């Protein structure tokens, strides 16, 4: 390419054909600057509101930065002290372990249930398919915070509908059963809330993939005596492999950084020390505890973790788009 | 793959499973509305009312006119101002940027696309303190402008990515033929391509609206003063202030906050499902 800017035809397939260069030199000169000019507003906003704070965050993570510094005191550089403190703190490892465990549990639950619902939608008639779609869309549309507060009410100790139903179904005594006070059942409730919101996305995406699987192949396999599980494992799954990878990565990213559901649920009645995940822990250390330097170090670790996963995902989706 | 034959017993089982999925998905939404329409003393019985016994709008009146220490109407006003400004600014900026990356080929084009997708993945949880300090330095804490600025940056990557898909969908040949007929490049764009993009702009804008409307963490940190709260921060504050004594009013507040989102979401979801997969956004 001789000139850095050329008017191109970019088809959906990604094929690119260069148009012959414009004969008028003035026009060409203008064209060279146009894309940069078009990008400037977006670049300025992103640099100012994401880039600049990101730089500040890195700097802050190497400083002693407490409440005094917020009010104008000098912030002395302390080298890797903040990182050493974070990495030597058993509480940090407990939080990290808890976050990873919560993430894994939620991703597996959402993937299994989402896939099951997608397969179900694929098998039932139009009426039931519409019914399921409407339900899923409602759950998907619900804001995370509203959903958490509503589930919090449903799991209410005294008047919650869940305790009533549990008692009616199991026959055991659930009067005044407190779900949020015990860390394990707290995370069971959190998992229900997160999964409830995540299943629609997983189900719709996988369902869209399922419609690409050719009928003839499945019928042939059935005639050859393949059972339902074999048909799924040997035919459907290979077709959907790349969709599964993308959906799993996205779920990992979303669940690892979960904040709203945990934070709001703690506000309804959880024990903070035993239920905090990474995002909530940063909030508590910085905003709650006033130790911005340490909070910054945890935040940097989190950014590196998330970006590492994202690079893998972004590379993959850009490559797929070009094919 | 619907061609696989199904026995009658299996199909009854599948129908039942569909009902279970439906009930499980809808129940929390139903329960929110159901609770919000009952007098507070009637939801505090040993047996919950699965249908309201005495329909009332009292809870909505409490939320709107008599919410005590967490006023609803100012929060609604703040939310509307912030979300609408965010959507308008983000759409304009993203639209220009998406033209640059689709209609022109330049050296750093791929880097730019890669960068916005990565920026998309930087967790807000990690950015709260430095964002707070940067806004503080600009005297923009507890202002509509400050929160709008933060939200524009938050929704911009997704908006650029999605609009880029829509612009790619309009063949550049249409513009070229208009240019052959004597239109300027800009004129061709505004007369030919822009009208074809309108549905895409609306859908993308609605998604930006939902994201900004639902955002909780940054608003909690950056606009913490009571009169500057947005609806999500208000809802959480109202829930904290009310405690567990008036769940009916809290459910009325939740309903008021969720309804615009649900309506908008149902309007645009079909158009956006594919964009969601590639753009990777969730409220």
Report on the structure:
Chain A: Residues 96-313 form the ABC transmembrane type-1 domain. Chain A: This is Sugar ABC transporter permease. Chain A: It holds the Pfam family BPD_transp_1. Chain A: It is a multi-pass membrane protein. Chain A: The chain crosses the membrane at residues 36-55, 99-120, 132-154, 184-211, 232-254, 292-314. Chain B: This is Carbohydrate ABC transporter permease. The complex is a heterodimer of chains A (323) and B (283). With 323 residues, chain A is an all-alpha fold. Chain A has two domains: 8-60, no CATH class; 83-322, MetI-like (MetI-like fold). Chain A has helices at residues 25-60, 67-70, 81-87, 90-123, 126-141, 144-154, 161-170, 183-210, 215-223, 228-256, 260-269, 272-275, 278-288, 292-322; strands at residues 6-10, 16-18. Chain A has a two-stranded antiparallel sheet with strand order 1-2. In chain A, helix 4 runs antiparallel to helix 5 (126-141), helix 4 (90-123) runs antiparallel to helix 10 (228-256) and helix 6 crosses helix 8. Chain A starts with 5 loop residues before the first strand and ends with a helix. By secondary structure, chain B is mainly α. Chain B folds into two domains: 8-63, no CATH class; 64-279, MetI-like (MetI-like fold). In chain B, 75% of the residues lie in helices and 1% in strands. Chain B contains eleven helices and one strand; from the N terminus they run αααβαααααααα. Chain B has helices spanning 8-36, 58-65, 72-103, 109-121, 124-137, 144-168, 172-180, 185-214, 217-222, 231-242, 247-279; one strand spanning 104-105. Mean pLDDT of chain B is 88; it is low at 273-283. Chains A and B meet through strand 1, helix 1, helix 4, helix 5 and helix 6 of A and helix 1, helix 3, strand 1, helix 4 and helix 5 of B.
